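Justification of computing resources. Each target in the renewal requires a structure prediction run like the one illustrated here; the chain below, 325 residues long, is used simply to show the kind of job we budget for.
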Amino acid sequence: MILPPARPSRTEPEPAGSPQAAPPPTGPPQAGPPHTGLWWGLLGVVAFSFTVPFTRVAVAALSPLFIGSARALVAAVLAAAALVLTRQCLPRGPQWFRLAVVAGGVVVGFPMLTSFALTAAPASHGAVVIALLPAVTATMAVFRGRERPRASFWIATGAGAVAAVAFAFAQPGGFGQLHWTDVLFFGAVLAAAVGYAEGGLLARELGAWQTISWALVLASPLMMGLVAFSVSQQPPSGTPVQWAAFAYLGVVSMFLGFFAWYRGLAIGPMAQVSQVQLAQPVMTICWAALLLGEQLTWATVVGGLAVIFCAGAAVRVRLNRRAPS
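Resulting structure tokens:
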């Protein structure tokens, strides 16, 4: 009986440039019953749709700096455990820089900016502006992938941006000017879009959930320092409901939600699963009304539908552009 050659131990250094030295790329779409990928993707979107309302609950007592940093630190502990238990290979040199881009966008930028914005803005308001995220992510992917999309892509993306800005301008008490919370929301969208686009490319090399896990671990020293500073300035104190909302942000929004979302993308079809994200702002607005008692105005409904329609058009144009290859 001839035994196959033994695999090199993960604790032993491997020769540079050898096939084993590179982390395994993502494989082909995983097999599964029809529509399984869509259901996993929808589960991830449902998990993410509670993020803005629960952040709104948590910031009523906890400081936004503590929420933005501590939720990432909680997720980083879970991510480190998952990476160790599954014995994942370390990323290589240039991949660490790209992971820093992902971490800066989705681990630091988006949670921090939305946490500060939601100290003053309603959750439904944030959901409308953040609805621009799919179109902006597609735009970042176009630039990062050096694509040349049709003019209709830029028209749809521009229309979505105009709709989001018009919604922000037309809010009561701030007509004709952007409120500081809107600036933070737009910054959060840009940060997340950069992180999603770079993470999508990096996931082909490291794996999907591995990418977000390494990004969390990479950002953990900074998050630990911010948590310590926040606690020294304002010791955290809240009700059980507010702490439960914070726990959801750390365990589900920053960690487990990505497992369902990326599993849906892995099963595919990726083009169809990715468009499920367009339902997220609708869900968020509904949760804000049901859980927080926020009143839905016609401006919120019309603005949300306009942004979602334009974002969906931009995503579809880009996907149709790439499909024929």
